[in-house]
Specification:
287 residues; mainly beta; Jelly Rolls; 7-stranded antiparallel sheet; 2 helices; 8% helix; 34% strand; globular
Length: 287
């Protein structure tokens, strides 16, 4: 069915969930006591992760781009030779997710590769609702996904993080389909090599909310693939892969953790209670 932009509505469940995050004082039934973070990165190796780097085969870690040193998941380019050559890469966790809260702590370090594109300076990302990397072509630069863009400051002016970019996708915000490739969040700028914590609340195809050091900075609804033909909306994204980017600037990740909310997806009351509890705790990256 063809959807018209001015008639977009969220499902009743999505509306209720939106209200939960808006009103932090919300109280519902007692949340479960077993809410625990699962570590997707174990601090020792890349177990559970597979890479896809442009111009290379799936699982080929060209130039040892993704590595673990000193307990950090590092993205490096020192073995690339003289040029980056637009070899954008992504490190995929080997399990897809649909309803969850993911937390990532990162910092930018060192200098960008000489021929890295200007826009990729101190730039990385968390890709959510992504395509299966085995379906990516050898020369494909980015998976179809929703990108939570991670940026570091340049030391001059404002450069917020946890922005939103849309390779092969679009979304709904304030009742309108948004086709703009990237929009900025309301976060502050983080200069230097300081650690930053970004969290993303993902509720299937209904709601996505970005947080930086415990503060909400962006929210939107109905993540979806780009439409075909003259349709206003594309296929809704109910779930998909999670991946971390390599875009030509060295970056460290010291924590990648998740709370899987899938078991509460069909129980709005309990889901609201869990989210209210999680959002009442302000988690900030320690330096």
């Amino acid at each position: 069915m063809k959807h018209k932009v001015n008639s977009l509505t969220l499902s009743g469940t999505a509306i209720m969930l939106s209200l939960v995050v808006l009103f932090s004082g919300f109280k519902a039934s007692e949340p479960p006591s077993d809410i625990k973070w699962k570590q997707l990165f174990n601090g020792k190796n890349l177990k559970g992760w597979d890479m896809k780097i442009r111009k290379h085969k799936f699982k080929e870690n060209y130039g040892n781009t993704f590595r673990v040193e000193n307990g950090n998941l590092e993205v490096r380019y020192d073995q690339y030779g003289d040029k980056f050559d637009e070899q954008f890469g992504h490190l995929f966790f080997n399990k897809p997710y649909s309803y969850y809260l993911i937390g990532v702590e990162y910092r930018f370090v060192g200098e960008q590769v000489k021929d890295g594109p200007g826009w990729a300076f101190r730039n990385s990302g968390i890709m959510i609702h992504g395509q299966d990397p085995e379906t990516m072509t050898r020369n494909q630069d980015f998976p179809n996904s929703i990108e939570v863009q991670l940026l570091g400051g340049s030391g001059k002016g404002e450069r917020p993080t946890a922005n939103l970019c849309t390779p092969g996708t679009q979304y709904v915000k304030d009742g309108k389909v948004i086709k703009t490739h990237c929009i900025t969040s309301g976060s502050k700028t983080f200069n230097g090599d300081q650690w930053v914590r970004v969290e993303v609340l993902v509720l299937g195809d209904s709601l996505v909310v970005h947080y930086v050091n415990g503060e909400e900075v962006l929210r939107y609804q109905r993540p979806q693939l780009d439409p075909i033909g003259d349709e206003a909306e594309g296929k809704l994204l109910k779930g998909g892969t999670i991946s971390l980017q390599s875009e030509s600037h060295p970056v460290d990740f010291r924590k990648v953790e998740i709370i899987d909310l899938e078991k509460y997806a069909n129980d709005p009351v309990k889901l609201k209670a869990v989210i209210a509890q999680l959002m009442s705790e302000k988690r900030v990256a320690k330096q």
